[in-house]
Design a protein that fits this description.
Number of helices: 2
Shape: rod-shaped
Strand order of the largest sheet: 1-2-3
Largest sheet: 3 strands, antiparallel
Amino acid sequence: MKNLFLLFALVFSMGAFAQKPIKYEPIPEPCLYVFDFVPKCNKLTYLLWGTYELSVCGDFRLQPGYDTMNDQLMDYLCQNGVLPGNVSIVKFTPFPDIVIGGKK
């Protein structure tokens, strides 16, 4: 019986060391999409006048005091003049030209 246990342990220990290492694929970063983002800052920003669809990847936790990610991004944009580093623009739709005085 003792020999049977030794043989059993030997067989399974060889099987444990004879395996190839498993290569795991990296888990893609989770992303949150913000639709219909319209910048409404009083100071100059690099964004054009229009509607944006944004992708927020990585750390997109809502900070205390904000109801939506839209509000948080708007506040960041108005304070810093740029979007955060983890935000990318997916789509931009410009507003129609604003006609002043009836001429384009």
